[in-house]
Amino acid sequence: MSNSTPTIGVLALQGDVREHLTALASADALARPVRRAEELDELDGLVIPGGESTTISKLAGVFGMLEPLRAFIRAGKPVYGTCAGMIMVAEKLLDGRDDQETFGGIDMIVRRNAFGRQNESFEAAVDVAGIDGGPVEGVFIRAPWVESVGAEVEVLAEHGGHTVAVRQGNVLATSFHPELTGDHRVHAFFVDMVRHAA
């Protein structure tokens, strides 16, 4: 990997993959969709997009990606989960389906659909620690929030008294969708994490 251009995949099982590819490219990463376990070997980092966490969990099982993704995270490769992606990197879930599996990576408990259903989606300015230039515009769509975190987890942002952005080591997660706004500072922050990890 050259210092300037890490290769970052976007898990392309379901969700808003194209928007993340665009945001990563604008933050000077080589971005590519990922659907197969062997493609993980070519990556410096990975984004797990929003979508429907139960569907992502199920498809990851069908495509044989569950264990390879867990191994990728355990190996310390940088991963960024947005919305459903935040749910997928949580160690524990509230209001999930009984058979729903996650990839893990962040010692936190996440509540699914905590901010309400689709018709209660909203946008809000969110101050995110480590991101300069003022608040980012957070798009919350059936968004989760973080109920509680372990000692190793850094809380980066809150909204309405709830934790909406966290980081543990090389794993980053936000309740909201920064890829839908045209403001790519969160993706640039993640690309920097990938560069530093390499």
What brief labels describe this structure?
three-stranded mixed β-sheet; 31% strand; globular; alpha/beta; seven-stranded mixed β-sheet; 5 helices; 198 residues
Report on the structure:
This protein is an alpha/beta fold and 198 residues long. 24% of the residues lie in helices and 31% in strands. The strands form 3 sheets. The chain has a 7-stranded mixed sheet with strand order 2-1-3-4-12-11-10. Strands 5-6-9 form a 3-stranded mixed sheet. Strands 7-8 form a two-stranded antiparallel sheet. Strand 11 (162-168) and strand 12 (171-174) form a beta hairpin. The termini are close together.
Secondary structure: elements and pairs:
Elements lengths: L6 E5 L5 H10 L3 E5 L10 E4 L4 H10 L3 H9 L4 E4 L1 H5 L1 E5 L11 E6 L10 E5 L9 E5 L4 E5 L4 E6 L2 E7 L2 E4 L10 H13 L1
Parallel strand pairs: 1-2, 1-3, 3-4, 4-12, 5-6
Antiparallel strand pairs: 6-9, 7-8, 10-11, 11-12
Short description:
By secondary structure, the chain is of the alpha/beta class. The chain has 5 helices and 12 strands.
User: How much is the average pLDDT?
Assistant: 93
Spatial ordering of strands, largest sheet: 2-1-3-4-12-11-10
- Judged by helices, strands and strand pairing, the structural class is alpha/beta
Over the alpha carbons, how many angstroms does the gyration radius reach? 15 Å
Number of helices: 5
Residue ranges: pLDDT <50 for 5 or more in a row? none
Measured between the Cα atoms of the first and last residue, the distance is 8 Å
Q: State the share of residues found in helices, binned by percent.
A: 10-25%
Strand segment tally: 12
